[in-house]
Design brief:
Blueprint lengths: L8 H4 L11 H5 L9 E5 L23 H13 L4 E7 L7 H13 L6 E8 L6 H10 L2 E5 L4 H4 L6 H15 L1 H7 E7 L7 H10 L5 E5 L12 H22 L31 E4 L5 E2 L14 H8 L11 H15 L9 E2 L2 E2 L14 H5 L11 H16 L6 H6 L4 H15 L1
Parallel strand pairs: 1-2, 1-7, 2-3, 3-4, 4-5, 5-6
Antiparallel strand pairs: 7-8, 9-10
Helix pairs in contact: 3-4, 7-8, 9-10, 10-14, 10-16
Length: about 425
């Protein structure tokens, strides 16, 4: 895995549905397990690929036992939320497909009244057989396929994987068009090495009819990044912007997630403290051995964290086993433990070589995986953001600001404030894209 289990950065950013400084307990009145909304279940620490930039650097043939999985599913059943998301992850979760089927059958058979379970999976796609596809379609799985695009970008995942995934997208589009349109997301990981192929990759995925594409920088910073290359990154995004704008004009579609839902930006006062959705205490990641974490990128079964600084930060946030006494109390204490770690808060104090976050025009929209700070080689400063991550945000958010907003229902009836000015801006952008 390469960070693909990290939530969409636009959704993961601090403050979505939460006020900074207010704990989930204060906000909902729920405590412990009742407040959990998302369950990320790591079924295996193994994978059939060895991607070059994957943070999971110690994969091994460990798998979650049914007794552990059932205990995790019972936690999902104990949540007080009306809708609970259950996501099957790895490693490569499809190595454990029979366990996925068994888990879904167990939850549906034992579903509490007025409770709805939604399901998701993040996969490299190479093991998606017709049988598995039919199951995912039937159960309405949100399916994220890790695929970096053109062969030059995809080769770090494996030389033969491009052809496999190229055929997979065609198959899903032809045999399950509604599912492909509504439930399949393509996750692209970009790095200093693959960035020169980013625009080609997005063009390719658009040609495949991908309806949702999320791009994230690798959370590792092993590869050097020269500050001046931000101009090269800008040129890539200018091409992506023009292609996306043409598609928006022709079909009204916006597959690239960074250009979507601009109306959903959280108020500025909600984004200036915490940096990551895990601090809300609504999500739990459960490793193969039943150990609980705030995020899958912190699980220990498939990685050896080399940074003493990051190890120290994460050690204080461990919640122990879900089957041990006191788990609910440790879950309640997690948001404060995350604050004490230093990585996940104080957004305005963060900085990179490009400048201080407090002075950035994109502070409100910017989303950085805080764990990437700990992966910066030799770094022990909780406020030092990796330069490539910052460059990606600076450029992508620049073009996000230029992209037309989708109208809200009220806008269709009344027209938004400044409608005439906005329409003129759209006309200028459309002319530029011709």
């Amino acid at each position: 895995m390469d960070g693909r289990h990290t939530p969409d950065p636009r959704k993961c950013a601090s403050g979505y549905g939460a006020a900074a400084g207010i704990s989930p307990i204060e906000r909902t009145g729920m405590t412990g397990i009742e407040q959990l909304r998302f369950f990320n279940l790591i079924l295996t620490a193994d994978c059939n690929l060895r991607c070059g930039y994957c943070y999971q650097n110690a994969k091994k043939p460990l798998r979650m036992r049914w007794e552990t999985l059932r205990a995790a599913l019972d936690l999902a059943r104990a949540s007080a939320r009306r809708e609970v998301g259950v996501y099957f992850l790895g490693g490569e979760p499809l190595l454990e497909f029979p366990m996925i089927r068994r888990a879904v059958e167990y939850l549906e058979k034992n579903r509490p009244p007025a409770r709805r379970f939604t399901y998701g999976i993040s996969t490299n796609g190479t093991l998606l057989t017709d049988e598995i596809c039919a199951f995912l379609v039937d159960r309405g799985f949100e399916t994220q396929i890790s695929f970096d695009g053109v062969p030059e970008a995809q080769k770090s995942r494996g030389q033969e994987t491009f052809a496999v995934l190229d055929r997979l997208l065609d198959r899903l589009r032809e045999e399950h068009p509604s599912f492909y349109r509504r439930s399949v997301r393509v996750a692209v990981t970009t790095s200093p090495e693959t960035m020169p192929h980013l625009a080609d990759s997005i063009d390719y995925l658009l040609s495949k009819g991908a309806r949702e594409i999320v791009v994230m920088p690798s959370i590792l910073a092993d590869s050097p990044w020269e500050l001046g290359r931000i101009e090269e990154l800008d040129a890539q995004f200018e091409r992506i912007f023009r292609a996306s704008l043409r598609l928006w004009r022709e079909r009204g579609e916006t597959p690239l997630s960074v250009f979507r839902n601009k109306h959903d930006e959280p108020p500025a006062e909600e984004t200036e403290d915490s940096m990551c959705g895990l601090v809300r205490g609504e999500t739990v990641a459960i490793d193969v051995d039943g150990q609980a974490y705030g995020c899958t990128v912190h699980a220990s079964s498939y990685q050896e964290i080399r940074s003493p600084f990051l190890r120290s930060c994460l050690a204080s946030m461990r919640m122990g086993s879900i089957v041990e006494d006191g788990f609910a109390a440790r879950l309640d204490a997690f948001p404060e433990a995350a604050r004490a770690a230093g990585l996940f808060h104080n957004k305005r104090r963060k900085r990179s070589a490009y400048g201080r976050c407090a002075e950035c025009a994109y502070l409100q929209q910017c989303a950085v995986c805080p764990t990437s700070i700990g992966h910066l080689p030799g770094n022990a400063d909780p406020d030092r953001v990796p330069d490539f991550y910052c460059a990606y945000n600076l450029v992508s958010l620049k073009y996000r600001a230029l992209f037309p907003s989708r109208p809200r229902p009220r806008d269709l009836l009344m027209g938004p404030p400044g409608l005439a000015e906005e329409m003129e801006r759209w006309r200028i952008l459309a002319d530029a894209a011709r």
